[in-house]
Amino acid sequence: MTIRIPDPSLVLLIGPSGAGKSTFAKRRFRPTEILSSDHCRALVCDDENDQTATDDAFELLHLILAKRLARHRNTVIDATNVQPSSRSSLLAIAAQWKMPAVATVFQLTEDLCQNRNRERAKRQVPREVITNQITALSESGSHLETEGFAAVYRLTSDDGDVVIVRYS
Fold first, then answer.
1. Phi, psi (5° rounding) for residue 152?
2. Is the pTM of this model over 0.90?
3. How is 102-137 classified by DSSP, letter by letter?
4. What is the largest distance, in Å, between two alpha-carbon atoms of the chain?
5. Beta carbons of 122 and 39 less than 8 angstroms apart
6. Over its length of 168 residues, how does the chain's per-residue pLDDT go in tens digits?
7. What is the C-alpha to C-alpha distance for residues 16 and 166, in angstroms, rounded to an integer?
8. SS3 state of residue 20
9. Which among 12, 23, 1 has a CA at the least distance from the CA of 150?
10. Could you tell me the domains of the chain?
11. Cα distance between residue 20 and residue 117, in whole Å
């Protein structure tokens, strides 16, 4: 699969924990292009798993996103983004800077996500969290094309054959 992204743009990775979003991003984008909610959580409280820091982490993520888009820099958001409200705040920032947004949706099976979660050394989330994230994505994922994305790409299997093509 080829994913075409405008350069510059906002790229939202959308999918449950354990779907492989972080691995996907690290393999295809520069470290400076990736804004991870987990990393922002660690920046504000030294623990990427501390959910009490989530609001502060996303405040920081939104600030950095706005600064990057103002400078016309590609920016990839590595967070679950399974709720429409999460996506709408990011899309609003992109619109403020007249930047296109591309969605890359990880629609993998729950079993695969649960297995990957169990194999994680540090960042395991409770089983029901992944179930809830998959439910949220299935309820809102079919409407992504109407949310304001320039393009929506859906990955339904491992990402090994995905190629990113940037264009201006």
1. -130, 125
2. yes
3. EEEEE---HHHHHHHHHH-SS----HHHHHHHHHHH
4. 41
5. no
6. 899 999 999 999 999 999 999 999 999 999 999 999 999 999 999 988 888 899 999 999 999 999 999 999 999 999 999 999 999 999 999 999 999 999 999 999 999 999 999 998 777 889 999 999 999 999 987 889 999 999 999 998 766 789 999 998
7. 25
8. coil
9. 12
10. 2-167 (3.40.50.300)
11. 10
Of 127, 24, 156, 121, the closest CA to residue 77 belongs to 24
φ, ψ for residue 79 (rounded to 5)?
A: -155, 170
Residue 99 near residue 38 (C-beta atoms within 8 A) = no
Q: Residue holding tokens 């190629």?
A: 163
Strands 10-14 and 101-106: parallel
Q: How far apart are CA 87 and CA 98, in angstroms?
A: 16
Return the ∠ at Cα 114 (arms to 108 and 119), rounded to 5°.
115
AA letter at 43: L
Q: Which residue has the tokens 């967070």?
A: 79
